[in-house]
Specification:
The chain is an alpha+beta fold. The protein has a single domain, classed as 2-Layer Sandwich (Alpha-D-Glucose-1,6-Bisphosphate, Chain A, domain 4), CATH 3.30.530. It contains 2 helices and 7 strands; from the N terminus they run E-H-E-E-E-E-E-E-H. The protein has a 7-stranded antiparallel beta sheet. The C terminus is likely disordered.
Amino acid sequence: MIRGRQALGPAVSAQAQTATTPEQAFAFVSALENHWHIDDRYLRLERLPVEGFGGRIRIRTPLGLARTAQTDLTTTVAPHLVGGTATVGARTRARVYWTIEPAAHGSHISLAADLLDVGPVDRLLLSLGGRWWLRRRFDRVLERLVLVLERGSAGEAAAPVRVA
């Protein structure tokens, strides 16, 4: 886990298993340009900086409300950890991280977010089911990640996978 500021509330997290090695999973996740392949209509990578480490993710809720998260990659520990921060609006900050561990037949991958500070709009959204919704989004991102990783490990080019 990334060390630093104490989290405000329980983490939002999801886990998946893949037949690929931790090194293959880490290589994909740590290259932020690959995240274009695993986004969906609710969590969409909008922009990567020309220089630097991070990006901008558009978060669209089922109710049509949209939020933008500015991300900064702060930690990589090959082949086990990729993490950083996500800032939404003026106050909401979260620590977001991927952990990759060896498993019997591949890797166990986790995607998690710990809230560090929450603004009033985001506090309301989280209390109205936002944590549950975000966990479902993380599940979907991991589903797409596994599909892309395993397709790529079978010799096919990793291509965008859309899972509705």
